[in-house]
User: Which sequence fits this backbone?
């Protein structure tokens, strides 16, 4: 399978697990089990996406609003960005880190807008969770079922303490390929050639180019 297809599957999965935060729901307990969380979000969201024509058509403004107000509370996006940037993150200034997160978010959002239009008749099956009650990090294994063969989809989640406590997603595995590691290999080339500022400039230019060309991802 081509890398672009894998990337689209990954963001479909990410969106399908998180966009349901935009639905009117009751507050859920911080101790909700991670597999129950993924199951609930996936079921709610697949239904919402299938019934929302503007999302399926890639309404970028609507998706952006959902990302800013609803998606980020369900993801440790700083950890996701830091892992994608790799060792250079530790040397980055606070300003550089903010710019990296901002540009990386835009990159992913534009991919959401294309990937969501691919949601059709999929359902998600959750596999038995292999984790103990004291575990701080877990992998929730699922399959996306629809037309064709089932697609392996795994989520890495961490238990977060304090305000906003609960399980947060920080990585995805689609057919054996982790999303963060895929971006890390791409970003490493830019960092090795031009440093952190070079990566920021490259992401910014890629996002501007995509916006100007009307591209999604």
Assistant:
């Amino acid at each position: 399978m081509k890398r672009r297809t894998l990337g689209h599957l990954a963001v479909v999965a990410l969106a399908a697990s998180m966009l349901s935060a935009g639905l009117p729901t009751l507050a859920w307990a911080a101790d909700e089990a991670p597999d129950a969380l993924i199951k609930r979000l996936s079921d709610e969201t697949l239904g919402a996406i299938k019934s929302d024509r503007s999302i399926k058509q890639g309404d970028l403004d609507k998706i952006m609003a959902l990302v800013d107000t609803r998606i980020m509370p369900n993801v440790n996006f700083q950890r996701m960005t830091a892992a994608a940037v790799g060792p250079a993150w530790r040397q980055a200034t606070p300003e550089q880190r903010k710019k990296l997160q901002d540009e990386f978010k835009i990159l992913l959002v534009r991919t959401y807008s294309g990937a969501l239009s691919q949601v059709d008749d999929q359902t998600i099956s959750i596999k038995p969770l292999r984790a103990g009650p004291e575990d701080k990090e877990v992998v929730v294994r699922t399959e996306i079922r629809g037309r064709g063969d089932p697609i392996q989809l795994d989520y890495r989640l961490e238990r977060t303490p304090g305000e906003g406590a609960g399980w947060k997603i920080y990585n995805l595995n689609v057919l054996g390929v982790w999303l963060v590691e895929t971006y890390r290999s791409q970003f490493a080339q830019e960092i090795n050639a031009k440093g952190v500022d070079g990566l920021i400039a490259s992401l910014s230019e890629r996002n501007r180019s995509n916006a100007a060309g009307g591209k999604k991802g």
